Amino acid sequence: MPSTKKKVVVTGFGPFSGHSVNASWVSVQELARLGLTDDIDLIISEIPVEYCTVKKIIPSLWKQHNPDLIVHVGVSSIAMELTLEQQAHNDGYDKHDISGSCPPTQCCVEGADTCIKSDIDMQHVCNEVNNMPIKIKTVVSNDAGRYLCDFSYYQSLHIDKRKAAFIHVPPLGCPYTAGEIAEGLRAVILSMLKQMAL
Fold this sequence. Notes:
By secondary structure, this protein is an alpha/beta fold. 35% of the residues lie in helices and 22% in strands. It contains 5 helices and 8 strands.
């Protein structure tokens, strides 16, 4: 009998310059230990900070798992809270990845829209989570940074903007632990799923 469980894919990034331990992947692993709910299959994946690999991995995650929701998590040195990204950009990718490369045209998907917004209302999620009795708070952003975070988010939004999200987390200890970040991620993801079910 096919599983009736919802499938949620959550990705974190590997190390890159200035982040030898990437808070996003540590927090995603902590989320996997915490779990979501019994009726949700949580699949996690670590993504290298590399444009050409992202272009292969993200479509394959969609194809392999056919998720109800895919959430990419990245670290931002300027984030103070969980930052829910509402949209992603298709151009302006001129920062080099861990292999010293950037897209030849500085573009994510040739000929596609300049910007794609997620159908998930991030402000609604933000308001709901900020009213929960957890330590970490959330904010909404419209600029995911024109690096691998923005790039990976655009890839997923281009595949299915109804089911894609991106969350920036602060570096570990600034001021939250991986456990506190994971608790926040769990609250955000469950709020997104609730909204999507309406």
